[in-house]
TrEMBL record:
Location of this chain's protein in the cell: Cell membrane
Name assigned to this protein: Cytochrome bc1 complex Rieske iron-sulfur subunit
Function noted in UniProt: Iron-sulfur subunit of the cytochrome bc1 complex, an essential component of the respiratory electron transport chain required for ATP synthesis. The bc1 complex catalyzes the oxidation of menaquinol and the reduction of cytochrome c in the respiratory chain. The bc1 complex operates through a Q-cycle mechanism that couples electron transfer to generation of the proton gradient that drives ATP synthesis.
Domain Rieske: 261-325
Amino acid sequence: MGDHSHGSPKSSGTVATAGQSEVEKFQDPGLPPHRPRLADKDPRAEKRAEKQVAILFVISIIGTLLFFVGYFAIRLDETIATLRLQNFLLGMGTAFAMLGIGVGIVHWAKTLMPDHEIAEERHAVRTEEDRVIAETMVTEIIEETGIKRRPLIRNTLLGAMILAPLPAIGILRDLSEDLNPDVLRHTMWDAGVRLTRDPSGTPIKASDVTIGSAFHVIPEGLNEAEHKLEEKAKAVVLLMRLNPEDLHVSPGREDWNYNGIVAYSKICTHVGCPVALYEQQTHHLLCPCHQSTFDLTQECKVIFGPATHALPQLPISVDDEGYLVATSDFHEPVGPSFWERG
């Protein structure tokens, strides 16, 4: 066997030992060499990049205008085609408005703003020097962006940024005339209003509802209402039948169901998505948007998901002809929870 002592940890220098001199500090490798971009070398490429950024900002402006066309110019006429057209214009307009600004700023930074790496020593902060340094830094940043000498980019960016927030302001304003949550407290349901199938409007008899079945329900007369979509968004209901012994009824709600037939608002109390999935075996209602789950046997109490409030129950009974009717409106506001729900 040969002598391998020269390769041992102690002799190879790979392991520091007591008494060994201090390991040298890593040397500063310095900044990597700067690679000029095409726009740095070719004035035509610089001008082309400037136009591209401006075009992206113009796309943002067009997107905002497209949103306003869909929001104000498209009048809903109770047809699905018109509703889809408006949703398309609203969605595409918002997407292009946000995307144009975002991509434009990124393209501006990557092609036109200085990309030199700079290393600076940290200096002690002094009151007057701090102010001067901050002022100098702001001035340098403005100069580096080139916004002063590129009016095309400056003007299109200002136009895009001014218009982009307006769709959000319009949407928030139109939530209600006075942004008043009281509009959610009242629907078309009232004592004696028949429960009808959605969308046909055919009345439902109690004998039609079998155990395990589920009906999507609207109030009678909804299809002829002046503001059909707005009223439907508040009044739509899910109707199901369980064995009466499976229901856990709270005091005061004993007459809100009819022989195990119960009706609950279809509007999720999280963000207002339609609760459309009914699991017959578990008696659970599921919202497909964020998986909020409600237990039908416990008056639609939330058992999973982000919703924090049970689905409002519609009190029901039958009329002289055996048709299911409401005995009142909902006793609480429908839809997402808010601070004035009460």
